[in-house]
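Render this sequence as a predicted structure.
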Amino acid sequence: MKFKIIITDECKEEMNEIYSYISYKLKEKEIAEKLILKVFERVSDLRESPRLYMRIGRFNIYNGLQRVYRRMIVNNYIILYTVNYESQEVFISHMFYKRKNYLN
């Protein structure tokens, strides 16, 4: 069975900021489009193989509940995601520039 991919609103906002920065500040719209396309291609691989990328640890979320995050690297960006095996859903949580301290 295939997993459902859910991109959080926060991640969508981060992706839009990255796209805008590359497109308008760096004036490289084609590179920005290729990056986002590559991200969506890699994310779609998670439908079949949600364990594809490395686990990076457990983080407290709400009321002591812990989630295991996995890290996907696409070019110079890190994408964090979690997997709910019971509901067969993959949550794409964040997208960061790789030099950013994303663990804090």
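Summary. Helices lie at 9-25, 29-45. The longest helix spans residues 9-25.
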